[in-house]
Amino acid sequence: MSQFIIRRLLLSIPTLLIVSFLIFSMIRLNPESVVAARLGEGYTPEQQQQVMEEYGLNEPLVTEYIAWLGRVLRGDWGESAYTSEPVLEEMGPKILVTFELALIAVTVAVLIGVPIGVFSAMRQDRWPDYVLRSFAIFGLSVPGFLIATIVLAVLAKQFGWIPPIRYQTFRESPLENLAQMWMPALIVSLATAAQVMRFSRTMMLDVLRQDYIRTAWSKGLRERAIISQHALKNAMLPVITVLGLTMAALIGGTVAFESIFGLPGLGRHLILAANQKDFAVVQGVALFFAICVIVINLLVDVSYTVLDPRART
Amino acid sequence: MSQYWDSYWKKSINRRRVLAGGSTAAVGIASMALAGCGDDDDDDNGTGNNTDALTPTAATPSTEQPVKGGTLRALTNVGSIFDPHRTNTPAESVSLWGAVGNMLLRFDHKNNGAPTGDLAAALPEIPADGLTLTFKLRPEAKWQQKAPVNGRAVTAEDIKASFDRIRDPATVSPRAGGFGAVESITAIDPTTVQFKLKTPQADLLSVIADQYNFVIPKEIAARGKDAITTVADVIGSGPYELTEFVAAQKFSMKRRADGYWRPNTSWLDGYEYLHQTDPQQAMNAIRAGQADAVGTTADLAKTIENDKNFVITRAATTTRECLLINHNIERFKDPKVRLALQRAINRRQVYDTVFGGLGWVGGPMTPASPSWVLPDSELEKLPGFGKREDEIKEAKALLSAAGLANGFEETVITVTAFDTEKIHDVVVSNLKDIGVTVKTENVGTDFAANFLPREVNRQYNLATTLFLSGGYPDAQLTLYHHSDTKVRGTRNYGDYSNKDLDAKLEKQSTVYDNNTRLPLVHEIQRDLINAPGPVWFGSRGGLTIWSSKVQNAASFPFVSSYYSAENVWIKA
Hints:
Radius of gyration of chain A: 24 Å
Distance between the termini of chain B: 36 Å
Oligomer: heterodimer
Helix content of chain B: 25-40%
Strand content of chain A: under 5%
Number of strands of chain A: 0
Structural class of chain B: alpha+beta
């Protein structure tokens, strides 16, 4: 097992290098935009030079990249050009917001998606199956940000109520925090729940056609026992992969919800930094997203091998 | 649609309450406000402008006795830099420093936004040569009770240190250029400060009163470029103290404990600004009682026009939309062709179509500068402001006289930002009316990265664009039309060159007496309409929704919205 993990970790290094170099070089394609973003219009050549120096834009790209990479490996991810705060320190609280949102969303998606998927499979091609599949298609086809916008507008207009807009951390006030988080998490989870539901249903149908399930039926076991003790574990293995990928996508994909619900998460942080051409922050957040995707994929693979030893080879 | 809003204000708000300008900057629209006191006799004219709405005043004036208490909660675009000399965003200048700090001069909303004393006791003494400005300070002005100043008096040394910091190239202040004419600043004694100029600069008083030029303690200024990076560094002489600032998230202020040196003007317990830039979400928040002031759009504002829980204010802004012409292109060297373009644009249509009627038609100076702009009665007699059919006829005749009777095809660049792409759609349609076929080149969504460099480097023939600058003549006329593009006309991205106009621009720039200066400024505007550099359209407006509990909320032009911290209270 440890060899498997080490091998996967080593494989992720070139991926990270390529991703980090792309991030580093792409945001330097137009140095003038940095100056314009920082100074507005009408700046002097001297001011332009000063800003270029401040942002390290006068050095060759590769030199700058190697220097930056060295600092990153030593734990120095740079400072925001706007707030002068260390990038990692600034990201800390925002990571928690985004992770909390993604984690609640995935949990809700599992709690909704798996039972419905299993139930739908057990009632294949009967009306409950059709109804639930229709809901799943709705969840997949209507963008979450649109649902969020409509729901909030209706709640505000008809009931004069929306979730609190003043963000408080879980440590400051658990109740206030959850009062703000539950609705965006629920809406974010709709598409994921639909995906999990459809995947669970397909996997369950596949498993239910296996010989050992037929044997269980022939032995006279009750439906609940067959599903819970024999079918579910095998059907859920691929679902874990979907959940892992979804979690990774959610961490980088909640920016619209963070904006709509006023959540100070990592996505919103990235957008602001990109608008301000705050190189260090953009690089830091993008690199963090890349690391998240790689780590989550690794965790998925590891969990897979724990549950199914055949996957270790 | 402009009539919709005009009739709305006349219908729903009595003369005293007509406003027009929400302190939009206070709620984060990077736009500005021009308030207006209604006059029922002043109806729309040929330009479609409601000039009533262009006289600054308070938006929600109240005759009730102010009461202490309450926190005003507003939604805004919270940025990252709260150093007033370095930031480019109004939330941090107008909303934050407007409550925390004071300026040497500020714009007087009771006098069409003309500069008046803030920390200065009055306007400066200026000798006949116009080269020395001597300011006497208010001795009662005190810094907040924070180290290292601990409530000491504001002195001339503080003024000198603040403006020297802005001027210092090491600070990299976007406002440094405004002080190019200043040779030195001297603290004569604790309450007297003197600006020595290389050349007379009449607009220097407006530059000093600009929304970003707040006075900070000399001890803070001495720290250099990174002097203001923490909440503890934010020390002002204003009525409120900064208590929290979280970049891109929120900031809060509380009333200063030692009492503001202008008694009976700070009533609120404090302010709380949260980051939210989506107008729909902002509307949801104010409907749900979670905010007291939010920026909005014309369409959204209509949905609450009859709700007595809210007051809507509107404001002209100093943003100016225009068709930028590259004068290096042979075709546009012919003044007849440029005048044809000037006549082709249906300005009213731009503001009705794109901004739901919320905009003011104008020429080279923004309608948001009531002291300087040509009156509508005169504007409507000039090319481009008459009846549409007449303008099209005249434009076609001009093209014909220029040897372009069949029109021409031209590439026009634009950008998907700040509604520019929508304005461009109207421009395309308008130009088609005179036989000009537009080939659109949209450079994308990043104004700073993709569009501005094209303008600066003259890589365009025509461009649908917008500009934002102060509401005074040098910032609106000289900056965009003087042929010296290195120093005076640094935003003359079309290389417009007219030596006679240069002379007029330079002359008006040195005249301190506004009564003498005004005819010169009007003449320049007429010249620029008859022989356009860029084709100017006017200025968009901004809308703010206030909870009706908020009393006496300020509503001024963008550059003077910082008044909003004083004399505002919340009804119990």
